[in-house]
From TrEMBL:
Function comment: Catalyzes the oxidation of either pyridoxine 5'-phosphate (PNP) or pyridoxamine 5'-phosphate (PMP) into pyridoxal 5'-phosphate (PLP).
BP term (GO), one: pyridoxine biosynthetic process
Domain Pyridoxine 5'-phosphate oxidase dimerisation C-terminal intervals: 167-211
Pathway: Cofactor metabolism; pyridoxal 5'-phosphate salvage; pyridoxal 5'-phosphate from pyridoxamine 5'-phosphate: step 1/1; Cofactor metabolism; pyridoxal 5'-phosphate salvage; pyridoxal 5'-phosphate from pyridoxine 5'-phosphate: step 1/1
EC number: 1.4.3.5
Catalytic reaction equation(s): pyridoxamine 5'-phosphate + O2 + H2O = pyridoxal 5'-phosphate + H2O2 + NH4(+); pyridoxine 5'-phosphate + O2 = pyridoxal 5'-phosphate + H2O2
Species: Marinagarivorans cellulosilyticus
Protein name: Pyridoxine/pyridoxamine 5'-phosphate oxidase
Domain Pyridoxamine 5'-phosphate oxidase N-terminal: from-to ranges: 29-153
Keyword annotations of the record: Flavoprotein, FMN, Oxidoreductase, Pyridoxine biosynthesis
Gene (name only): pdxH
Family: Belongs to the pyridoxamine 5'-phosphate oxidase family.
One Pfam family hit: PNP_phzG_C
HAMAP family given in the database record: PdxH
């Protein structure tokens, strides 16, 4: 059994921004400065129509006051789950900094213009891959996937790759955040931001949670 102490530092109420997105931006900037592996990788949890939860890693592509954006195939399992239940959970596991951020929110599609702008910023082969892969669907072999990729690459060899109508972004609009900092003797620091009726002028109530 692996056991270790968390000793990199605590988290106090006075350390927190009143706005949870400002707090996220602060921690993300520190994660980027620390050069931890894949700081924008986040676990996305969804629930299917029959109540089965599923998790997978997706990459955060944009975050602002409106929410957290990632991109995917709209025929994928995650998108199908969201179509039935738009409530999702995000988790940033910044183990190297002994930190976690958990976010609950409502998922909705971004505008076609946003999806197009991001799609056109992707490398050419990533654009081609969006056309080649029927994400989450069964395939007979990797060779079949590579053959389809080669076919699409040849098709779009002479021009720009258009945005597939089955591909685009989702924005997660948060209604709850939790910031977790590891502490010695398992006395971790946890703070939750919510938006109940008694919220402050900034719209968020901050509570300390027991570890």
């Amino acid at each position: 059994m692996i056991r270790r102490e968390y000793l990199q530092g605590g988290l106090r109420r006075n350390d927190l921004h009143e706005n949870p997105m400002s707090q996220f931006e602060h921690w993300m900037s520190q994660a980027l400065e620390a050069k931890i592996p894949d700081p924008t990788a986040m676990t996305l949890a969804t629930v299917s129509a029959d109540g089965e939860p599923t998790q997978r890693i997706v990459l955060l592509k944009h975050a602002d006051s409106k929410g957290f954006v990632f991109y995917t195939n709209y025929a994928s399992r995650k998108a199908t789950d969201i179509a039935h239940n738009a409530k999702v959970s995000l988790h940033f596991p910044w183990h190297f900094m002994e930190r976690q951020v958990k976010i609950n929110g409502i998922a909705s599609k971004v505008s076609p213009a946003e999806s197009l702008a991001y799609f056109m910023s992707r490398p050419h082969e990533s654009q081609v891959a969006a056309w080649a892969s029927e994400q989450s669907h069964s395939i007979s072999s990797r060779q079949m996937l590579e053959t389809q990729f080669a076919r699409m690459k040849e098709k779009f060899l002479q021009g720009k790759v258009p945005l597939p109508d089955f591909w685009g972004g989702f924005r997660i609009t948060p209604y709850r955040y939790e910031y977790w900092q590891g502490g010695a003797m398992r006395l971790h620091d946890r703070f939750e931001y919510t938006q109940p009726q008694e919220a402050t002028d900034d719209g968020w109530v901050i509570r300390r949670l027991a570890p």
